[in-house]
Amino acid sequence: MALSLLASLFLLLVVQSGDSANVPAIFIFGDSLSDSGNNNYIPTLAKSNYPPYGIDFPLGPTGRFSNGKLVVDILAEMLGLPYAPPFSDPSTMNNLQILQGVNYASATAGVLDETGKQYMGSIPFNRQIDDFQQTVSRIYTLFGQNTTAMNAYISKALMMVSIGSNDYLNNYLRPDIYSTSTQYTPLAFSNLLVQQIAQQLLALYNMGARKFVVYSLGPIGCTPNQLVGQSCADKVNQMVLLFNSALRSLIIDLNLHLPGVDFAYADAYGIITDILVSPNSYGFSVTWQGCCGAGNLQWNCIAGTAPCNNRNSYIFWDSLHPTEAVNRVVAQRSFAGPPSDIYPFNIQQLASI
C-alpha cells in the first residue's frame, strides 16, 4: 500500500510539473534511431556504447547511435519528461521512473522477428511489445492493482513507434542472407510489413495505449551506406515509399475504426528529404559523408577514431544514422509542424487531447 501511494504521489508530481499535463509518460519502440542503450545489455554485434558515439551527449557513449541526442530524447525534453531509460537495463524496472516512460528500441530490430539475425540478439518489435506488457504489469502493481487508475494513466501516455528500416537494410536488401526478395515483390513485402505492424499496434491498443506517433521510414536510399556514387539509390527509396504509403493508409484506417484512439503519422521521409534537397537552408554543408569516419561500406563508427569537428554541419553521423542536428529538425517539425509533416495532428496537439 505504501509503495502504491508513493507511486501515485510521484505520478501526481509528474503530471503537475510536465509541460504537457496530458502526457505523463513516453514509451518508445523501434530500432537504432531510437535505441537509448538496450543493446548494451544483450549479446549482439550492434552496439554503440563506445567513443566517438555520444561525443556530444551529456553522459557520453550510452548506446545511442548518434553523436548526441536522438529524436525521442529531444521530444521528451519538449514534453517536460526525462529521457526514457532502456528496458534492458536491470535497474529500470525497479525504478519509479518507469512511470515517466521506458525505451524498448533495439538496434537492427525489425517488424519481422527474423530481421537483423546476422548481428545476433536484437529485440524485434514483437518482443518489445512483450516487454511493454511486463512494464504494464509492474505499473499495475505500483498503482495498488487499481485497474481504473492504471488504464487512465496508460491512455494518456505517448507511444512512439519508429521501425521498419532494418526490414529492408538487414533483410529484403540482403539476398545473400534472406530469401524475402525472391518470395515477395517490393509491393507485396511492404504490405506484409504493414499488415504485421497493424497487429502489433493493435496489441498495444489492447493493453490500453491510446496516443500514438508512428514515424515513416526515412529516405534510406540516400544514406552514405546505400549511395550510388553521390546519388541516392532510387530503387531503394521507391521501396520505402511503397511502405510509407501503406503505413499512412493504415494510420488513417486505425483512427477511423478504433474507438478512443489518436494516431499521428510523422513523415520522416519528407522532413529528411527537405534537408537533403536544401541542406544550406538548415545549416548543413556536408551531405553525402558520415562525420565519425566510418567508410560507406562500414555503417558504424570505428572505435576510438576522431570525428569531424563541425558536427552541426553534417547530416549523417555514421553511414546510416543522422547527427543530433538533424534529429533536432525532425523532432521540432513533428512536435509543432503542419499536417504535411505530421498528420492529422502534431505531437503538441496530440498532447493536448
Automatic annotation (TrEMBL):
<dbReference type="GO" id="GO:0016788">
    <property type="term" value="F:hydrolase activity, acting on ester bonds"/>
</dbReference>
<keyword id="KW-0732">Signal</keyword>
<dbReference type="InterPro" id="IPR036514">
    <property type="entry name" value="SGNH_hydro_sf"/>
</dbReference>
<comment type="similarity">
    <text>Belongs to the 'GDSL' lipolytic enzyme family.</text>
</comment>
<dbReference type="GO" id="GO:0005576">
    <property type="term" value="C:extracellular region"/>
</dbReference>
<keyword id="KW-0378">Hydrolase</keyword>
<dbReference type="GO" id="GO:0016042">
    <property type="term" value="P:lipid catabolic process"/>
</dbReference>
<keyword id="KW-0443">Lipid metabolism</keyword>
<dbReference type="InterPro" id="IPR035669">
    <property type="entry name" value="SGNH_plant_lipase-like"/>
</dbReference>
<feature type="signal peptide">
    <location>
        <begin position="1"/>
        <end position="20"/>
    </location>
</feature>
<dbReference type="InterPro" id="IPR051238">
    <property type="entry name" value="GDSL_esterase/lipase"/>
</dbReference>
<protein>
    <recommendedName>
        <fullName>GDSL esterase/lipase At1g71250-like</fullName>
    </recommendedName>
</protein>
<dbReference type="InterPro" id="IPR001087">
    <property type="entry name" value="GDSL"/>
</dbReference>
<dbReference type="Pfam" id="PF00657">
    <property type="entry name" value="Lipase_GDSL"/>
</dbReference>
<keyword id="KW-0964">Secreted</keyword>
<keyword id="KW-0442">Lipid degradation</keyword>
